[in-house]
Design a protein that fits this description.
Elements lengths: L1 H12 L18 H7 L3 H9 L3 H4 L6 E6 L1 H5 L3 H8 L2 H9 L2 E2 L12 E4 L8 E6 L5 E3 L2 E10 L2 E6 L10 H6 L5 H9 L3 H4 L5 E6 L1 H6 L2 H5 L2 H9 L2 E3 L12 E4 L5 E6 L6 E3 L7 E10 L2 E6 L21 E2 L32 H18 L6 H12 L2
Parallel strand pairs: 1-7, 8-14
Antiparallel strand pairs: 1-2, 3-4, 4-5, 5-6, 6-7, 8-9, 10-11, 10-15, 11-12, 12-13, 13-14
Helix pairs in contact: 1-14, 1-15, 3-7, 7-15
Length: about 400
């Protein structure tokens, strides 16, 4: 029952993320609560009041960072979830505090793959920040649409989906996903479970069961060393959500040592891997955020160059876009520019089109509903009970 609820939430929540247009050019004033209202996040403001958090976030001595979902994000929640949250103050309290950090993080303060601890009492307190060379940034994979609305006691960043605690790591998510059972079996066979259960972070391009069925002779015909190299070719150090490839095809160095090319289809939101080779693959589900990275499900097994030195003994931490610019050091001037004023505004405003995010989310949700995959939002319903008892 919980799985079905999670899938329903995923399908509805991920339908679309509307673009945010700042309508006022006046500087923000007041506390972060005032800023939230000034930026049109009125539902968030009402829910903060319902949870008894308004006074907390109005504390003049406070230092807060708020990742503020827009009204669209709340409208996309299923009515049953909204009702459950609003009828349980403890649950609502923890849900909202997962969007608040007890320290001021301007855009320039945040680093790529930084974990920022929130105020929630849930076991998973962290949200993961990623900043890419193309000027885009994400919070647990959700595009950071506009940044640095500074108030007297903190800063507000706008996001277009709600955040939720992430309860699983990459291996746990794969184990719990029926369509990845063949991948799990191979990870166990070649002793890679512990590695991918570590802190990481990792980006895993996970072949589906059908992909392994199509490549069935591979496991029997390759040596153990070569088969392990094939599996490591699907793992990249670092966290690369699809936003990283927007307008910037990537050359990512894998744990096997060779690179994989990743390009984003801006119409569908899906990614193509090694598209110019004889053995390409495409994602069927993207941006499955985990506590130690992200999983993208693909429809074919990638085939690396194999040889005596095919398996790298070192884990590269320098996977780069094709431009070779460090993902975390893109200057603000190289990123898409904001078209309206900000209060503390050297940070770029993300320009990933809403249509791209919407197309990706819709396709991912429908694919996951059919295969039982756990999407970034699917876990949300499953953690409602945990939020209720966290305090």
């Amino acid at each position: 029952m919980r799985i079905h609820l999670a899938l329903l939430l995923s399908a509805v929540l991920l339908q679309c993320a509307a673009a945010i247009t700042r309508t006022s050019s006046t500087p923000t004033t007041g506390t972060v609560v005032d800023v939230i209202n000034q930026q049109g996040c009125t539902i968030l403001a009402k829910w903060l009041d319902a949870a008894g958090l308004t006074a907390t976030l109005q504390d003049p001595k406070g230092t807060f960072t708020v990742f503020a979902p827009t009204n669209t994000a709340f409208h996309n929640l299923p009515p049953s979830v909204v009702k459950e949250l609003l009828n349980n103050t403890t649950m609502l309290h923890n849900f909202l505090l997962h969007h608040v950090a007890p320290k001021v993080y301007l855009y320039s303060d945040m680093a790529d793959d930084e974990l920022i601890q929130t105020l929630t009492d849930h076991a998973d307190k962290n949200v993961r920040i990623n900043k890419y060379a193309n000027g885009l940034a994400t919070v647990d994979g959700e595009p950071l649409r506009q940044q640095d609305f500074v108030g007297s006691n903190g800063v507000v960043h706008l996001i277009t989906d709600v955040l939720h605690p992430i309860e699983t790591d990459i291996v746990q998510a794969a184990v719990g996903t029926a369509d990845l059972s063949k991948l799990v079996a191979l990870l166990k066979k070649y002793d890679l479970v512990d590695a991918l259960s570590g802190a990481g972070p990792f980006t895993v391009f996970a072949p589906s069961n059908a992909a392994f069925e199509a490549a069935r002779p591979m496991d029997g015909s390759l040596s153990a060393a070569d088969m392990k190299a094939v599996l490591l070719y699907h793992v990249v150090p670092g966290t690369f959500f699809s936003a990283a490839a927007y307008d910037t095809p990537l050359q990512l160095k894998t744990l096997q040592g060779a690179t994989v090319e990743v390009a984003l289809d801006e119409e569908t939101g899906m990614m193509a891997l090694n598209g110019a080779t004889a053995h390409p693959a495409n994602t069927t589900a993207t941006n499955l955020a985990q506590s130690n990275g992200v999983v993208h499900v693909i429809n074919a097994v990638l085939q690396p160059p194999l040889g005596p030195s095919s398996t790298s003994s070192e884990s590269s931490q320098s996977s780069q876009p094709a431009s070779s610019a460090p993902a975390s050091s893109a200057p603000a001037s190289s990123a898409p520019a904001s078209t309206s004023s900000k209060t503390a505004s050297s940070a770029p405003a993300s320009t990933l089109p809403a249509s791209t995010h919407a197309a990706s989310s819709t396709k991912t949700a429908s694919t996951n509903a059919a295969s039982g995959l756990a999407t970034p939002a699917a876990a949300f319903a499953a953690v409602l009970a945990a939020l209720a008892v966290a305090m």
